[in-house]
């Protein structure tokens, strides 16, 4: 496979770029077409594309203020490093144009990709097209990076204690951790029926996490298993029953979890339940993570397999 990385404009490769973005953003990520297409923005941007022969297989765009976006690579080419090449190409272009930094709005599930390329991020989660995002920046000159950018949520590096009060923040945090491929994923759910645990982005991230490693395993400890069998998280657990274990333990007093050896999250000192309380989380606290994991292991070992899931499986 010979891939070429080429600078272009929207008008020169509009059909191929549309095809890639339609497949990645509209079909795969279910972003409404009305939110994807903006003729004025596309005509104003510098584009870099990846070509196999004459076929566009990836794209990215850069504006004159240093903002970039619409990075997309067709699924069958994503293990080939094309995304990194596209970002590298606009970095070179931005440097040639004298831009001080590359700036973007990044999906939380892609944060590990950007961290590995040297990007920094701020700590404020927000929704764009219904997907949690973070602002990211890569300095290109000697100018200091604005204070709001750092290593927030990066496993083993961000020692700040974060308070997560909104569903967007909790989902965003989980996505940033799962994309870093943690060695351990264990969650105790006080309210397993809560819709936040069944968000399609979280389910997709868990499935992707499990499929990226043969030794990956997820443990779920739930307070009850009443009327849960048809909920998306547990439908996924049944489908991947060799990789996901679900135990029921009525002594689960709060929602908490560990994602890797350094990351934990838990409900704050308010009413139990994801909707009612807030969460606190840390991505670089090995000691507290061990403490939480020990508690989860005790709950898991003293629990019982879900009867409702077993009956539905049969």
TrEMBL record:
Q: One Pfam family, please name it.
A: Acetyltransf_10
Q: Which GO terms describe its molecular function?
A: acyltransferase activity
**N-acetyltransferase domain: residues covered:** 1-141
Keyword RNA-binding listed? The answer is no
EC no. given is: 2.3.1.-
What top-level branch of life does the organism fall under? Bacteria
Give UniProt keywords alphabetically: Acyltransferase, Transferase
- Does the record carry Acyltransferase as a key word? yes
Query: Per its UniProt record, what PANTHER family does this chain match?
Result: AMINOALKYLPHOSPHONATE N-ACETYLTRANSFERASE-RELATED-RELATED (PTHR43877)
Q: Quote the protein name from its UniProt record.
A: GNAT family N-acetyltransferase
Organism source for this protein?
Oceanobacter antarcticus
């Amino acid at each position: 496979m010979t891939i070429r990385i080429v600078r272009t404009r929207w008008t020169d490769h509009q059909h191929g770029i549309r095809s890639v973005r339609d497949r990645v953003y509209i079909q795969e990520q279910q972003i409404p077409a009305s939110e994807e297409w903006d003729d004025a923005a596309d005509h104003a941007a510098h584009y870099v594309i990846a070509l196999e022969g004459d076929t566009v297989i990836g794209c990215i765009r850069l504006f004159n203020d240093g903002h970039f976006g619409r990075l997309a690579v067709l699924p069958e080419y994503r293990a080939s490093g094309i995304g990194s090449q596209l970002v590298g190409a606009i970095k070179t272009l931005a440097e040639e144009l004298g831009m001080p930094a590359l700036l973007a709005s990044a999906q939380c599930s892609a944060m590990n990709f950007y961290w590995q390329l040297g990007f920094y991020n701020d700590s404020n989660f927000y929704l764009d097209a219904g997907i949690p995002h973070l602002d990211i920046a890569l300095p290109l000159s000697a100018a200091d990076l604005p204070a709001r950018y750092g290593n927030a949520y990066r496993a083993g590096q961000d020692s700040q204690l974060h308070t997560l009060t909104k569903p967007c923040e909790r989902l965003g945090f989980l996505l940033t951790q799962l994309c870093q491929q943690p060695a351990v994923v264990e969650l105790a759910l006080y309210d397993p029926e809560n819709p936040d645990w069944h968000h399609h982005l979280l389910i997709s991230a868990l499935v992707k996490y499990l499929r990226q490693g043969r030794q990956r395993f997820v443990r779920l400890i739930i307070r009850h298993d009443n009327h849960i069998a048809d909920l998306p998280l547990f439908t996924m657990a049944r489908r991947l029953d060799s990789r996901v274990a679900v135990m029921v333990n009525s002594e689960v007093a709060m929602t908490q979890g560990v994602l890797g050896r350094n990351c934990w999250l838990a409900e704050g000192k308010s009413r139990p339940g994801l909707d009612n309380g807030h969460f606190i989380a840390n991505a670089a606290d090995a000691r507290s993570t061990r403490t939480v994991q020990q508690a989860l292991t005790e709950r898991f070992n003293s629990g019982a397999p879900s009867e409702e899931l077993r009956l539905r499986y049969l």
